[in-house]
Specification:
It contains 7 helices and 15 strands. By secondary structure, the protein is α+β, with helices and mostly antiparallel strands. It has a domain of 219 residues: Double-stranded beta-helix (4-Layer Sandwich), CATH 3.60.130.10.
Length: 336
């Protein structure tokens, strides 16, 4: 290593799967009182109508969940960085009501931002054959993060088989690579040029105007930015040169994160909600099988949330200059 004083990352965010053997503290089950509050809010929002994007936490009062939400925000921001919420399956909601409940809970964690040129703040994760974005492609997904503070997923319909959510601590991955391949750490700290797909460009450039580090410090805390599909696209389709060492370093992050004992798998059930801190947690998906019946195909809802109380990312940690509400997201209709 040369230009970086790289140390191991310690604390709750640097976990491995073995830390949670026999420990279900990461699963939060909604109480009857919480479900009653959620239902009152869902019915009120549904009766009022209008755009879901306009619903705020003031419109979705959840007094019985106040303590739980404070704990979840602490876990995401300062703790292990992930949580799975169960209980909505018992509410008997249809798809629209599940979407309202998910959005409403999300408003208490952060500000929902656009996920593509479509302006979709409540995105749909399902196989529609578009392979240049992870959430519109089927099959197995490599480890990555989403370019927003928190990502939320709600399971509408699980896969016929497979389709597990796989997560790993980016800091544990950092520490393993530091132990095993310290010669690659400079490449990860110096980072890569990123590209964005054509439909999301608007008036912005195809390529980032700077290298974005995979690992960096922000206010004396480590953060991670790892979106390998955008790095490969820059190299393979836009002529950005990559050294063999850079290619090896980029691939090794995914390989280490997929090691048994490092990653944790979650088998989503109907109504389950997962929230992840993208700055500290990588996520992937195992391969899966869908039935022919469209109504029974794997289908998740997705939220991208920006958390106002978190430190803003400096320019060198932002993939593109375009910003949506609360400093994140992809602008609707690709307008910069």
């Amino acid at each position: 290593m040369t230009g970086h004083n790289i140390q191991k990352v310690t604390g709750e965010k640097s976990w491995i799967a073995a830390d949670f053997v026999g420990d279900q503290s990461w699963v939060h089950r909604l109480s009857d009182a919480a479900l009653a509050d959620i239902d009152r809010a869902v019915q009120a929002v549904g009766a009022r109508g209008g755009a879901l994007d306009d619903v705020t936490s003031n419109d979705f009062d959840l007094p019985s969940l106040a303590g739980d939400i404070a704990e979840i925000k602490y876990i995401l921001g300062l703790g292990r960085g992930f949580v799975l919420i169960k209980g909505l399956a018992d509410a008997g909601y249809d798809e629209d009501q599940l979407g309202i409940a998910f959005w409403g809970i999300g408003t208490h964690i952060g500000t929902g931002v656009s996920q593509s040129w479509r302006g979709d703040r409540l995105g749909h994760v399902r196989d529609i054959g578009e392979t240049d974005r992870y959430y519109t492609a089927g099959g197995e997904l490599e480890m990555h993060m989403d370019p927003t503070d928190v990502v939320g997923l709600l399971c509408m319909q699980g896969a016929a088989s497979g389709g597990l959510s796989r997560i790993a601590s980016s800091f544990a991955v950092h520490n393993i690579i530091l132990d095993e391949r310290p010669d690659l750490m400079d490449a990860l700290y110096e980072g890569f040029i990123y590209s964005r797909r054509q439909s999301d460009l608007g008036g912005t450039a195809t390529l980032s105007d700077h290298r974005i580090p995979v690992f960096a410090e922000l206010e004396n805390k480590m953060v991670c930015h790892y979106l390998p599909i955008a790095v490969r696209n820059a190299a393979e389709n836009n002529g950005v040169p990559m050294t063999d060492k850079e290619r090896e370093a980029l691939a090794l992050v995914n390989q280490v994160a997929h090691r048994p004992g490092v990653f944790m798998d979650m088998d989503f059930q109907h109504g389950d909600i997962q929230f992840l801190n993208n700055r500290t947690t990588l996520h992937a998906r195992t391969d899966y099988t869908d039935p022919e019946d469209t109504a029974l195909k794997r289908h998740l809802l997705r939220l991208w949330l920006m958390v106002d109380s978190w430190a803003s990312l400096p320019a060198n940690l932002r993939m593109h200059g375009t910003a949506d509400r609360a400093g994140g997201g992809i602008a609707k209709a690709a307008v910069s």
